Amino acid sequence: MLQIGRNIFSLLVSRILTAIILFLVYTRLIQYLGPEQAGQYGLLAAFLTVFGFFVDLGMQQLVIKKISENRAEAGKYLGNYFVIQFLLGIGFMLILDTIVFTGSYPPLVKQSLYITGIGLVLSSMTMPLMAVINGFQRLSIIARVNFINSLINACMMLLAIIYHKNILFLAFIPGAVALFDVIAYGIIVHRRITPFKFQFDWPFWKQLFAWNLPFMLLTIFSIYNRIDALILPHLRSYVENGYYTAVYKFWDTLAFLPAVVAAALYPYFADKLSRGETEEARNVLTIYTRYMIALAIPLSVGAYFLAEKITVTFFGAAFAPAAPALWLLVAAVSILFIYVPVNSLIISQRTKTATIITGGTLVFNLALNLLLIPKFGFIVAAIVTLASELIQLVGYTIVVQRKILAFPYLVNFVKPIIAGAVMGVALIILSFLNVWVSILAGAVIYGASLLLLGFFHWHDWELLKASINFRKRLNTD
Description:
Elements: H1 2-56, H2 59-69, H3 74-102, H4 107-135, H5 139-162, H6 167-170, H7 173-192, H8 202-221, H9 227-235, H10 238-254, H11 256-274, H12 278-315, H13 323-349, H14 351-376, H15 378-404, H16 414-429, H17 435-452, H18 458-468
Helix pairs in contact: 1-3, 1-4, 1-5, 1-9, 1-10, 1-11, 1-18, 2-4, 2-11, 3-4, 4-7, 5-7, 8-14, 9-10, 9-14, 10-13, 11-12, 11-13, 12-13, 12-16, 12-17, 13-14, 13-15, 14-15, 16-17
């Protein structure tokens, strides 16, 4: 439990600081680019994200699980996985380049996408190194490296604004960040965790790919919440994609917390359940689901009442039409908050079942987007994203409750919903305030309501104190 708290706290501090920096710089960048160029930039990001799912083929999750269960094999997994990822990166870069070459994109967009392909190869090489670090539950290392690479990202975006660069310059950012990550993680892993050397063990490769099939399908199917940004420019326009790209940044910014929790819980569940320690796993699942529900409710309530103010404040009046999509996307990421603990557990223990559920979500998402976006535009893309996350939440939670670990669930919504209602009424009354004061007031009122309702337990404070007490040594065996 303490290891999880320490890992989450380390990543949380890093991600909060970098999220604030990147978000503020990103909003200035979007205003500088305007809706149409922002839509083109969003297309680059969508290609990189979607191909990032494909290039890994889910093997990172598999390797984390295997190393968590048997750390003595870390060097073997790292050496072979690194070669596999390099070859996959080259292969998918060529596929991306072929799509771009045959597509009807503006010349500047084509050139930028070719550069993005190089970033794809470099980012694929970071995955094996991060898998080893995750498998050893040394997430504080990832926190430190993430902080530095986020500063590199922010500085390059600022340079683009200051020197009036276009999306071709921005296309170099993923490659620069990934190159730093490869060097930093490579040195740290080689010196502090396991020696690195290239390995080509063909029988082991075949075994890896056989084990990896459910993880591969799950990873590919997980593009359901990113596919809309790829098809929007083709079915509507770059301007609408610019609106969607701008407010989707709230998803990216807020989703860091579920990503942090998932990164800490996934190897933990794999380790504990492989040892048969089900009660401890149940306790952790219950506690972190409760925390995530408490965080999700105020996000949705606040976004509903403040969507227009937030959109105009951060992106300017030109992006005001994107306000409804902002609330829908924040509501969607709030649902992700709620089911991320069960997501970590089901992927660890019932990967095939998770693959079936996520595959159904992808079919649902893609079908509705292709059917409705041409007529209704980017707002419906946000609605479909919200519906897709609801499918994931319901499907994953039912499976975990019935097939893996039953745990208290619905009762955890009662007090956060009451506190959220109080917060909503307060935001209506205080609607004359500016967005910053409104956000602060809403947060204070929600937190005070939870305290008065007795939501927090003594062990919550004990866990928090232990997690931030870095002088206390951990057993990392």
